[in-house]
Automatic annotation (TrEMBL):
Gene3D superfamilies: Transmembrane di-heme cytochromes, Chain C
Source organism, top-level taxon: Bacteria
SUPFAM superfamilies, sorted: Transmembrane di-heme cytochromes (SSF81342)
InterPro entries the record matches: Cyt_b561_bac/Ni-Hgenase (IPR011577), Di-haem_cyt_TM (IPR016174), Hydrogenase_cytochrome (IPR051542)
Transmembrane segments: 23-46, 85-103, 142-163, 183-204
Membrane topology of the entry: Multi-pass membrane protein
PANTHER family named among the record's database cross-references: NI/FE-HYDROGENASE 1 B-TYPE CYTOCHROME SUBUNIT, NI_FE-HYDROGENASE 1 B-TYPE CYTOCHROME SUBUNIT-RELATED
Subcellular location(s) of the protein: Cell membrane
Name this polypeptide is given: Cytochrome b/b6 domain-containing protein
Domain Cytochrome b561 bacterial/Ni-hydrogenase: 18-217
UniProt KW keywords: Cell membrane, Membrane, Transmembrane, Transmembrane helix
Length: 224
């Protein structure tokens, strides 16, 4: 009689990436991408500072003459429409940031970002900084933490700019706030590019399945 091979028990427990986190991740990706696209349209593709002269050339070719102020009025219509989209997406980002905090609170222990960071730090301390995997995992977690902080700065400065014309105290710091907001935008853009490059590299090498894990949840959550 052939002895039966004992099968290893299936892993149970909550998945590493909860449904709430996965929904937030893809919604946040769409909103941040939309915000960056509005800036791209305003300052790179459309270039509102130079598009006025192009309007004048096109109108002149059709026998229509517009003054500089009239052309500025046309460019303002385009600019304001894009800014309306930017503001709307900014409000959506604010809502998503609040939802991210809610998701972090209601998730089970091993699914929380704080626990994942604690696990990465513990593994790094146990195995030492010379082990590439533990060092990489900890750096990735810290980069996510930096990204969350950037989102907070983006939302807070964006809200200040939104209400700066209506609140005197906010109006006084509008210029500085705008500079901080713009710098943070470039940092978010840099993080996004780095994150995409890292995911593609991981999928093509030994850490495959990152994207699918953010779709179906991945393996069971680790405990701190």
């Amino acid at each position: 009689m052939t002895p039966q091979t004992e099968q290893a028990p299936l892993a149970t427990g909550p998945k590493r990436n909860s449904l709430g986190l996965r929904l937030w991740h893809w919604a946040n990706t769409a909103v941040v991408s939309g915000l960056l696209l509005t800036i791209l349209f305003l300052f790179v593709i459309v270039q509102m500072k130079t598009v006025g002269s192009e309007f004048q050339k096109v109108l002149a070719a059709e026998g229509v003459t517009f003054s500089r102020e009239q052309v500025r009025g046309l460019t303002r219509i385009v600019s304001h429409r894009i800014w309306d989209w930017h503001i709307g997406l900014g409000v959506a980002l604010t809502v998503l940031l609040v939802l991210r905090i809610v998701v972090e609170v209601v998730q089970k222990g091993g699914q929380r970002f704080g626990v994942k960071l604690a696990v990465a730090r513990r593994v790094f301390q146990q195995r030492g900084p010379e082990l590439q995997d533990s060092r990489h995992s900890l750096l990735v977690k810290y980069s996510y933490l930096a990204f969350y902080l950037m989102l907070v700065v983006m939302v807070v400065t964006g809200l200040v700019l939104l209400y700066a014309d209506d609140v005197e105290v906010l109006h006084r710091i509008e210029h500085t706030t705008e500079e901080v907001h713009n710098i943070t935008m470039y940092l978010v853009l840099a993080f996004t590019a780095g994150h995409l490059a890292g995911v593609v590299y991981a999928e093509l090498t030994k850490n495959r399945g990152i994207v699918s894990d953010m779709i179906h949840g991945g393996s069971p959550a680790e405990q701190a």
